[in-house]
Amino acid sequence: MGHLDPLAIATSPQSLSVRIGYATRTGLREANEDFVGFVTPFGTELHAKGILAAAADGVSGNSGGREAAEYTVRSLLADYYATPETWEVPMALDKVIGAANRWLLAHGAADRDAPGGMATTLSALVLRGRRFYLAHVGDTRIYRCSRGEWQQLTQDHVWDRPDMQHVLRRAIGLDRHLAVDYADGELHPDDIFLICSDGVWEPLGSSRMLEILQANEDPQIAADTLVDAALAARGKDNASAMVLHVDRLASETWRDLLAEGLLLPVPPRFKPGQCIDEFEILELLHESRATLLYRVRSRKSGHILALKTLQPALSGDRESCEGLLAEEWLSRRIVSTCFPQVVPLPAALRTHLYYVMSFHPGATLQQQLDRGRHFTIADVAQIGAQVAKGLGTLHRLRIVHRDIKPANLLQSPDASLRILDLGVALAGGVPYPELQGNPGTPSFMAPELFEGEPATERSDLYATGVTLYHLLTRKYPYGEVEPFQRPRFGAPIPPARYRPDIPLWMENVILRAVAREPEQRFETAEELLVALEHADARPLSPPRPTPMLQRPLLRWRAAAVILLVINLLLVYYILMR
Asked: Is residue 149 part of a domain?
């Protein structure tokens, strides 16, 4: 059932405000095989994941119908909020529903008390920000009344025959290959959503349900009235209804949710000994065109930390300010020893725009190269494995770093490695300002990025391969690429040409990582990690050369040659007539 009071309301001034009421009755059945539930979180979880409501109707032909309905709804309500905040809503729902489907199939097959298996319908609704999302399987339904328009948002998955209108084609727990309907749309103030089982919509009909909703402003009274009316209309099934009234929308966009931070001014440039809020500036660690990174000491705890802010010249640049706030938002969601950890610091405790993270002594790999360090094969293998572990963490969160290179890899005195700078990272659901093109360092950018293709996990792995190549040889597999250059990618130069001591297994790992075609590279960071850690047991063969007709430039050249030959033959034929 509902996890909070049916009339629970999110009270933050910028939060989505929804009133919810539900009712479920057994009716003429021996047992109630319907199950409904909802979660109304608060604060950042409400902004990130939204309000989730779901109804399920256990398949009565199966003895495990009630258990299937309850398990599916409960697991959805619990596990959806455990998915990463960087996942988009449909992806999070799909992962959780897929897991529930597999559990029901396995449990139903093993349960002697449920010889007919365990299956259930499911209709789930997420209200987040200014949009709604739904997931649907079966013949429970979701309706919406918006701006005077009454609409059924779901389609029943039943057989299209008069004698089989109650036989489901799709249900959770019915088939290993589950197909779920997903949809989304824009929310409006005063929208009303109805989630109901067939024990309500079938005896009442569409117009009667709308009449009841319009006559009852209180969602709890509306839900009770719908169920009572369905049973009074001689409905023979369990009757369940959940009504959601949207009273207030959340802030217009994620940018508005960052408005509190955007009110903070960019601080001036600091000198050692100066203070900002509770932090004392110790030294300037790094300076780029857009940002400044300081080593600071907390005057409260004494801890040494790193403070990142913008260059004072960017104080009026809204996009840069948004980017820094969004970078902090994203970094806080990555819990891993492969990355610096952001120290939670509410905007209300800051007088200027910055964020603070853990400080780790050491030097970047680029700084070590500049100092003349010679990296051994063992050094590079260990570094590659650590980068692969960090990228695996990012990619599982659906985050693409987009700027892996030696300058963004910090090595501590104990040889531990941390990936730095998420300033141009991309992730689904992250409130980043739109970034045009593919930012990054040209010599480490994958060939497809120069063709305008979006960055992917495999382009991160390409940059990792170039990094390992550069650490070993101080060269680049396709030559150095200058900014604004349009490079041509032929065959990569084997790194052993510059370092004859590179073993064949390491060369094959690097050449596969930097393959020109994405499908020839490692598919995942975990695959790269295995190749580096188990090279002796599972040596890689060198990547196969790309057939000429699969290479974009050569394909067009070949076509042009063929057309030229055809034209010459035609001319010859005409002249000889």
From this structure: yes
* Domain identity same for 70 and 210: yes
Q: Which domain-ending residue is among 251, 282, 317?
A: 251
Q: Are 242 and 55 contacting, i.e. CB atoms less than 8 angstroms apart?
A: yes
**Residue 343 included in any domain:** yes
Angle at 105 between CA 100 and CA 110, to 5 degrees: 125
The CA R_g of the chain, rounded to the nearest whole Å, is 30
Q: Which own/partner contact pairs does 150-156 have at CB distance under 8 Å and 24+ positions apart?
A: 150/206, 150/210, 152/206, 153/183, 154/123, 154/181, 155/181
3-state secondary structure of 197: coil
In a domain, residue 510? The reply is: yes
Residue 466 CA to chain centroid, in angstroms?
Answer: 26
CATH number for the domain spanning 46: value is 3.60.40.10
pLDDT band at 101 (very low <50, low <70, confident <90, very high): very high
The answer to whether the beta carbons of residues 47 and 259 sit under 8 Å apart is no
Q: Each residue of 266-312: pLDDT tens digit?
A: 999 999 999 999 999 999 999 999 999 999 999 999 999 999 999 99
- Could you tell me the pTM of the whole model? 0.69
The residues, any chain, with a CB within 8 Å of residue 303's CB and separated by 6 or more, are 297
Tokens of 288: 């780029």
Q: Are the CB atoms for 3 and 39 separated by under 8 Å?
A: yes
CATH number, domain with residue 326: 3.30.200.20
How many C-beta atoms surround the C-beta of residue 538 within 10 A? 10
Residue 197 shares a structural domain with residue 89: yes
Same domain, 316 and 411: no
